[in-house]
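Appendix B. Raw example, untouched.
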Amino acid sequence: MSLDDLNREQKRALKRQGAIDEKGAPVKAPRTQATRDRVGPVQYLREVRDEMRKVAWPTRPEVVRYSIIVTATVVVYTAYVGGLDYALQYAADWFYA
């Protein structure tokens, strides 16, 4: 899409945002300098430990319950897809044989 495809309202909005100049030519956005403060491995591990303490860990009964639900769901959907595959294969064999 070029600037010729834009209507006046869109061009005015781009001017207000600083994306185009008064002549309608695109303006290169100024590059922002991201200041990255590097930390050492000890500080990093300390921060990781502090963040991990904030995590709401599930209890053992919750993990067991969710694992059973996921396993049962996988078994049911696998049986459904397998049954559907078998039925369609049987229908295809009957139709083409």
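End of appendix B.
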